[in-house]
Specification:
With 578 residues, this protein is of the alpha/beta class. It contains 14 helices and 20 strands. α5 crosses α14. The C terminus is likely disordered.
């Protein structure tokens, strides 16, 4: 086993990871900083796939208080209010940093001000963007700045275990696999950032790429860390439905399409959203996804079993100009977004749940920090579109500064638990097989279970049945061998590891969904359809102890505003009233 050491190890190269690297370097350029990523830096991760934009209160008619209230109300009063306040206030600083220091070019109004477009669930148009390819702009600029500094990279290295000290009191490092050679690598570090991103790819329709497999959450779970709000999986209403023959199915058609006035139509080409919500297509993602799922259940579907999005009434030329990336993506799959109809389906998009963490991105395990989609509590029961990349960049920067200060204070590498390393390697080793078998049937079973029983609409019978099926999938996966072949770029082996992480996290989602006996945001129980008293709101906290998963419900602290109140005053309108 190869062994490396570094001051700061960052797992993930999305917005959170790269911002953390830059801010840590800015705090102390003498630190050894290493970014480890499954793929290639600048070419992978969910931030790069962001189309819509970045929520921030910039206009004089807007305010951080209004952005905060939209976030709290959109999250159905489950967000950690101190985290949400930090998000909306630091977003203003971070967007200036992106433009003025890192060189991002965002779209402008004729008067030179930054253009901000409409996104659902918000009382003000505050989404900063670069056409409909905002994520590429942000990641390209961040990657350039990382490359320009003495920041080390471990590309095509997969993290598989958080390795503690022998007494379990702190983190000593991370066990990784060098995907290029197949060898195990132990990276010792004084501070580690978990920023691998979520990626709910256990669902039949999903937006992230297939290499996103919740590895960070699975590692945190095994390390005994508490995970918050894990039942809250966001479905984006408009995932492209291009048929089973292409991986383009599930990829997002951005929310700006609905924000600009796009219509959702059923299989009979009738608009249906006004009968479900006053805001129609501009309702929050949870409401629109449920309405769409209800139409699908009624059988009012398109040839591929989904629904339609229509933009032609806005003018094909205008649509083609304002949504160039989306129009080209649809054209690649044979659809005319500007002038025709495009088939869509709700698609698993984002995990509001994640590791419980503090305002400074610390966790309860000394030496481990978390930011981005691996962190829970910022969004509560529903994330507003445009708050995701803001979350990653805001807390990524905070994490970088915190880790630099931590290393200056703590300053020493800790000895890893060798027995834990041996056990971790054993968990990563599938049984050898003389005959190579496909993992595809197990993947399809996982898709089916999660989509049908732990998806947009849930109930006790379905969730309990799902738990039993997930246990069976996990057992079968553990007993499934793969061919004893060269480990260099052995994608079957990594597929097996992906499925292990996905199945473990799927179980937490399911058990947390069972524990929450009300409906809130992205979590809807057919057998408990009521939301319950907002002032008695609780969040779920999952922890694995001695191989037993326990779910507790903890009261939400209304640190800044209580249900029924507003930071905007008595006359302010909520997102649901406009």
């Amino acid at each position: 086993m190869r062994e490396l050491s570094t001051d700061i190890l960052i797992l993930g190269s999305g917005g959170a990871g790269l911002f953390a690297a830059l801010h840590a370097h800015q705090a102390d350029a003498s630190l050894a900083i290493t970014v480890a990523v499954k793929g290639l830096l600048g070419k992978c991760g969910c931030t790069r796939m962001v189309q819509g934009g970045y929520n921030v209160a910039l206009a004089k008619e807007d305010s951080v208080e209004r952005h905060f209230m939209d976030t709290i109300e959109g999250g159905k009063w489950l967000p950690d209010q101190d985290l949400a306040w930090k998000l909306v206030t630091l977003a203003v600083e971070r967007i200036r940093e992106l433009e003025n220091e890192l060189g991002c070019f965002f779209d402008r109004n004729p008067d030179g001000t930054v253009h901000q477009k409409a996104f659902a669930g918000q009382t003000f148009d505050r989404t900063v963007h670069k056409g409909d390819l905002t994520g590429i702009e942000i990641i390209n600029r961040l990657a350039e700045q990382v490359w320009a500094r003495k920041i080390n990279r471990l590309e095509e290295h997969r993290a598989v275990e958080l390795v503690k000290t022998r007494d379990g009191s702190a983190l000593a490092g991370v066990l990784m696999i060098d995907m290029r050679t197949g060898e195990y690598v132990l990276v010792r570090a004084k501070a580690v950032l978990l920023a691998t991103g979520g990626g709910p790819t256990m669902y039949r329709y999903h937006t992230p790429s297939g290499d996103k497999s919740c590895d960070g959450l699975a590692m945190a779970l095994r390390a005994g860390l508490p995970l918050r709000d894990m039942e809250m999986v966001q479905f984006h209403p408009t995932g492209l439905l291009a048929g089973p023959h292409t991986r383009m199915t599930g990829t997002v058609l951005e929310e700006g399409l609905r924000g600009a006035g796009g219509y959702l139509l059923n299989g009979a080409k009738e608009r249906f959203m006004p009968s479900y919500d006053l805001l129609a297509e501009r309702a929050t993602r949870d409401l629109v996804s449920r309405a769409m799922y209800a139409e699908i259940r009624k059988g009012n579907v398109t040839p591929n079993g989904g629904l339609y999005i229509s933009m032609a009434h806005l003018g094909p030329e205008k649509v083609a100009k304002n949504f160039k990336g989306m129009v080209e993506r649809c054209a690649d799959c044979g659809f005319d977004l500007a002038g025709g109809l495009v088939e869509v389906v709700p698609t698993a998009h984002y995990m509001m749940g994640g590791v419980e963490f503090g305002l400074d991105c610390t966790t309860e395990l000394p030496g481990l920090f978390v930011a981005g989609e691996d962190a829970g509590g910022v969004h509560g029961a529903n994330r507003l579109g445009g708050n995701g990349v803001a979350n990653s960049t805001v807390f990524g920067g905070v994490a970088g500064e915190t880790m630099a200060a931590w290393v200056m204070k703590q300053g020493a590498l800790r000895d890893p638990d060798q027995a834990a390393i041996v056990a971790a390697v054993a968990r990563c080793e599938p049984k050898p097989a003389k005959v190579h078998g496909s993992l595809e049937p197990l993947r399809e079973r996982l898709y089916e279970v999660m989509w049908e029983k732990v998806g947009i609409i849930r109930d006790r019978a379905g969730l309990e049945s799902a738990l039993a099926e997930l246990d069976a999938i996990a057992d079968e996966l553990s007993n499934t061998g793969i061919a004893d072949a060269n480990r260099a770029f052995n994608l079957t082996w990594h597929d097996w590891l992906n499925l292990k992480s996905l199945t473990a996290v799927s179980r937490v989602i399911t058990q947390a969904a069972l524990a929450r006996e009300d409906s809130r945001g992205a979590h809807f129980r057919d057998d408990f359809p009521e939301t319950g008293a907002l002032d008695q709101s609780t969040y779920s906290s999952a922890r694995l102890t001695d191989s037993v998963l326990n779910i507790g419900m903890k009261p939400v602290a209304f640190a800044r505003v209580r249900p029924g109140e507003s930071l905007l005053g008595a006359n302010a309108k909520s997102a649901g009233e406009i």
